Amino acid sequence: MRIAVTGSIATDHLMTFPGRFADQLVADQLHTVSLSFLVDNLDVRRGGVGANIAFGMGQLGAGPVLVGAAGADFDEYRAWLDRHGVDTASVRISEVLHTARFVCTTDADHNQIGSFYTGAMSEARLIELHAVAERVGGLDLVLIGADDPEAMMRHTEECRSRSIPFAADFSQQIARMGGDEIRNLMDGATYLFSNEYEKGLIESKTGWSDEEVLARVGHRVTTLGARGVRIERAGEDPIEVGCAEETAKVDPTGVGDAFRAGFLSGLGWGVGLERAAQVGCMLATLVIETLGTQEYTLRGVTFMDRFTKAYGFDAASEVRAHLS
User: Fold this and answer.
1) Does this model's pTM top 0.70?
2) Shortest CA distance to 148 belongs to which of 317, 252, 313, 7?
3) Which of 32, 74, 80, 227 has the fewest C-beta atoms lying within 10 Å of its C-beta?
4) How far apart are CA 144 and CA 59, in angstroms?
5) Tens-digit pLDDT profile for residues 285-294
6) Max Cα distance, the chain (Å)
7) Residue 270 — pLDDT band, cuts 50, 70, 90?
């Protein structure tokens, strides 16, 4: 399968302030705040849901096509993704805007002050999937991940009009969407991804019951945190897969993206839904053990040893042949 991953491309600039924000605030002067914090360190991390998912698929040898928008400052990030097996030739480079950026300062009490600059992400709406499909010789599935909302809508409509199967994955953008937008973005999706909270929010905002949602999508994939994942299809028993045991819980950021990367890779290999979910859960475990969304290293032998321990020899024998 040739899978395109649409979604945000961003960098996170994370700083630590050794003091407390509260000590710097004057109660009767909050209407005219002007503060500057001398921070101890700066950690720049690669991120964005589209790039995170594509990176994971590249690590698994699935050859994903990343579709999104970035700025002229994307060169170093592009080289990193290219080196890890991601096709970045369909990333649009803005002539006037920087790559999207999250800048955040955390104090000693773990309070945070942050800003998100959308930047070039707003130009994702200008990307035509037809051009992407022509370049790579056709698309078998498009994941429509969290991105510029207009881009998400346009990609969904183009998939429908061109009969390209698509997966709906609203992620953090669901908070700003209304019921009509959500209904339009997921109706007819081959896969619908969400976590448990987002599942409830989808039903609340659309007014559709769980059964009505299942009648409109091929598969509903719900991540359950430490309990793994559940896959539902209308008229069939659900498939539930547990998490692989982790060595440590270091950072949960990007765990959902990693699951999607593993699951989509498994679909591309044709190993079936349960096996694909197991690959996704194993990759998610690697991410939770690592600080940063793209800082983990996938070593085939170690990955398969842990996969075998978690899911058994038969499952591992089906997956091993596909893991380059």
Assistant:
1) yes
2) 7
3) 32
4) 20
5) 999 999 888 9
6) 67
7) very high
Type of residue numbered 211: E
Phi, psi of 17 (to 5 degrees): -100, 125
3-state secondary structure the chain: CCEEEECCCEEEEEEECCCCHHHHCCHHHHHHCCCCCCCCEEEEEEECHHHHHHHHHHHCCCCCEEECEECHHHHHHHHHHHHCCCECCCCEECCCCCCEEEEEEECCCCCEEEEEECHHHHHHHHCCHHHHHHHHCCCCEEEECCCCHHHHHHHHHHHHHCCCCEEEECHHHHHHCCHHHHHHHHCCCCEEEEEHHHHHHHHHHHCCCHHHHHCCCCEEEEECHHHCEEEECCCCCCEEECCCCCCCCCCCCCHHHHHHHHHHHHHHHCCCHHHHHHHHHHHHHHHHCCCCCCCCCCCHHHHHHHHHHHHCHHHHHHHHCCCC
The structure tokens listed for 266 are 């498994």
**15 token code pair:** 């700083």
Tokens (6 digits) for 173: 């953008």
Q: What are phi and psi of 292, to 5 degrees?
A: 110, 150
